[in-house]
Structure formats: C-alpha cells, structure tokens
Amino acid sequence: MVRSTARGIGAAIARRFAREGAAVLVAANEPLVEQVAGEITAAGGTAAPFVADVTDPAQAARLYDAAEQHFGRVDVSVQNAGVITIARIEDMTEAEWDKVLAVTTKGVFLCCQGADAGGGLHQVKGERSFIVDPHAALLRLADAALHPADAFRRG
C-alpha cells in the first residue's frame, strides 16, 4: 500500500513497486489515483485505486481492509503523504497549521494503526526492518515542532 500516489514521488514509488512485481494499492484523497492505477495495469502491473482521507480514522482503517481484499495481505506500507504551507509563521492560519499536522502526522499515525491491526508492524522479516515506535515518534514530533518556534522572532 502506497499512500499519496496521485502524483509526484508517491506515483513514482507505486510505479516502481509495480515494476518490481508488487501488487499495489494506489491510495490518495483524490480520484487521480484511478489514472495512476490504470497506468500501472496498462504497463502489465497489478494495481487497484483507493480514494481515502487518511485523517479520518474510519477511512484510514478501510484503506488496509481494501488492500487485504484486493491482494490478500499488506507486506509494505509507504507513508508518503505530506502537506506544506509556504507562509511566514505570523501569516499562517490555525486551519493551515492543523491541516499540515493532520495529514503529515495524524495520517501516518492512523495508517500505522491500520497496518498494525493484526500485529503486522511487529512481525517483520528479513535482514533489514524496523518497528514503528509511536512514543518515540511523538517525542520527535514535539521536539521538531519547537524548532521553528525557537527561530521565530518578532521584528
């Protein structure tokens, strides 16, 4: 399952996984995923589109249900989605701030929960793997959030 595959890096990741023989659930919050899945299929790969807002817990959970229905299981979950607002901190609205955090942090959190519903994040195999530690991720997020605020100074 590759999240945020409607364009750019996410679409490229999905195409590459498909070229390497993976069946890919092409997921994003817009119908353009149908085009990307169609391109993968036309090139001989296996893909299914899925439109979801991963900041919504129910939709994030359905994402993994869909992957399992289409392909039997989820072996890899790529969290590629991100939102950025280019603005000076004093010009950024609270709604813009909330959207950035919802997509780039809450969306990852909810998708990790969905991927781990059967304990999948902890049953990794192979020479290279990692286990997602949500507690460490939260500490790093809180620390990272402070750096822009530390650098901000009024005129």
Summarize the structure.
InterPro entries: DHB_DH, NAD(P)-bd_dom_sf, SDR_fam. With 155 residues, the protein is mainly α.
Would you give an account of this structure?
With 155 residues, the chain is mainly alpha-helical. The chain has one domain: Rossmann fold. The chain is built from five helices and three strands, in the order βαβαβααα. β1, α1 and β2 form a beta-alpha-beta unit. The longest helix has 22 residues. The protein is globular and about 50 Å long. The termini are far apart. The C terminus is likely disordered. It holds the Pfam family adh_short.
With strands numbered from the N-terminus, the spatial order across the biggest sheet is 1-2-3
Number of strands: 3
**Average pLDDT value?**
77
| CATH architecture type | 3-Layer(aba) Sandwich
Shape: globular
Q: According to CATH, what is the class?
A: Alpha Beta
Euclidean distance between termini CA atoms: 46 Å
Question: What is the CATH homology-level superfamily?
Answer: NAD(P)-binding Rossmann-like Domain
Q: Could you tell me the radius of gyration in angstroms? A: 17 Å
Oligomer: single chain
Which band does the percent of strand residues land in?
A: 5-15%
Q: What is the number of helices?
A: 5
CATH topology: Rossmann fold
Look at the helices and sheets and give the structural class.
Answer: mainly alpha
pLDDT < 50 runs, ≥5 residues: 122-132, 149-155
* Main sheet overview: 3 strands, parallel
Family: Belongs to the short-chain dehydrogenases/reductases (SDR) family.
Protein name: SDR family NAD(P)-dependent oxidoreductase
InterPro entries: DHB_DH, NAD(P)-bd_dom_sf, SDR_fam
Organism: Benzoatithermus flavus
